[in-house]
Every structure is written in C-alpha cells, then in structure tokens.
Amino acid sequence: MSRPTVTIYGADGSATKDSAPLPNVFKAPIRPDIVQSVHTGMAKNKRQPYAVSEKAGHQTSAESWGTGRAVARIPRVSGGGTHRAGQAAFGNQCRSGRMFAPTKVWRKWHQKINLGQKRFATASAIAASSSAALLMARGHRVSTVPEVPLVVSSTAFSGAAVKKTSAAINLLKAVGAGQDLEKVRLSKKIRAGKGKLRGRRHTQRRGPLVIYEPEKDGKEIVTATRNIPGVETCPVYALNLLQLAPGGHLGRFIVWTSSAFNALDSIYGSTTQPAE
C-alpha cells in the first residue's frame, strides 16, 4: 500500500477526521503456499474421530464347511429355512461381512503445525486482506467499499449502539458491505451428495469478517451479527486462519473496528519493535 495512514469511517459511512497509521503486519509477505499448508493442518485438527463398530460383520454364527465341497473355505452361516443360511460371512469380500482393516478412533488424527509458520500464515492473511484485487479474486463484492482495509470508528459500537441485528445490517450497508451481504443471501444452495443427509444440507458463501477489540468495543457486536448470513466475528487477540483465509484462499473481506486496528502493532510488533 502506498498510503501510510488509513481513514476511519463513522457509523453513517462517512469519513471522519481521524486516521490510523497502517500497522506493520500489513507489510508482511503474502505467501499463499504457507497459508494453504497451515490451513490444511488446522482444518484437519478440527475433525471428529469416527470408526465402525467393533462387532460389525461378526454378529452371526458361521463356520467353514472345510474342503471337499467344491466351494470356497470362507465361513458360512449355519442353519436352514432362510436365504441367509449357507451364505458366506465375516470376510471383507462377503455381503454383510466386516470391512478390511476396520477403522479405529485411535487413528493419529492430529497434525503438528510449525508454530512459526502458523504465526507467519496469520500475518500473511492479514496483509492480503488489504489488497482489493485479492478480495475480488476471492469473490467478495467490494466495489462500493471506500477503502481497504476498512476501519470503522469504535464510537459506532460504544454504549451497545450495535446491539440489534437491524443496527448491524444498517452499519454494514452504510460502510459499503451491502453488496457482499446480498451475494451471500443469494448464494444459499442445497449441497450435492450425501452431505445433505449428514447435517451439511446447505452451502453458502462467506461474507465480511468483523474484527473487534472485546474490552473497548464490547461483545454486543457478536450477538448483533451472528444471525446475519455469512457474517462472522472474531476478537483481535484470537485471530483464526480458518476465518482469515477460508478454504486456504487469501483475501477475506475484513471490517476492522478502530480499537482492534490500533491494537495490531502491539500484538504483532514490527521489524524494530517486538510484540507485547
């Protein structure tokens, strides 16, 4: 970015007289390869262990007929009077048999992520959020946004001013995020495949990410925005790469509060000053 400062916008979308110096973290190198690698590891570490039942495929009485019958020696269900009698059982090649190498919950699920790379990826994702080209390449509608990074004055959130969902929607529309909200609303589709049956029925695009400073901005902003499709919130002290670069793709549209924006230098430091 060529400008050393960033304009701060009010709740009505107009530019205030205040400006903020650009935090040094926005000068971090943009490395899609590192971001993709770290994102893959973090996404894997959110998995829930799964396994088939230990009894599956073995809940029947079956014994091999032995040799001399001109049939395979696989165990066969005993008895008679039903189609099941005489059918092969237990083997992974059998109908109603167990699978090969039944899955276990004690599989090694966790993937270690280098801490330095994890911090680098977060800084890189923050830096990428200041590039309008990367935001548009990711699919965000930012043609009406006056400036990126977009910083909104914390006074707009003081005194629980943004407590209702309607107030949050009006604020986002005022600062130019209305087109992105509309894109999300129109993007809701029914998922293709079996995920429909497994609690993942709908797919939907991501909208703006609102980053706030919990002590100064209050937490009412979380309840105000949580019911807006596509909008997510995150405290500035707990930034998450899964939100900053969904899918491992750089260029998330971020709405910063001025308090959160000013806290970035103390969190990430600079080339001359360490983080606090």
TrEMBL record:
InterPro entries: Ribosomal_uL4 (IPR002136), Ribosomal_uL4_dom_sf (IPR023574), Ribosomal_uL4_euk/arc_CS (IPR013000), Ribosomal_uL4_euk/arch (IPR045240). GO terms for biological process: translation. GO terms for cellular component: ribonucleoprotein complex; ribosome. One of its GO terms (molecular function) is structural constituent of ribosome. The keyword Ribosomal protein applies. SUPFAM superfamilies: Ribosomal protein L4. Pfam families: Ribosomal_L4 (PF00573). Residues 1-24, 45-67 are annotated as: Disordered. Keywords: Ribonucleoprotein, Ribosomal protein. It comes from the Eukaryota. Belongs to the universal ribosomal protein uL4 family. This is Large ribosomal subunit protein uL4.
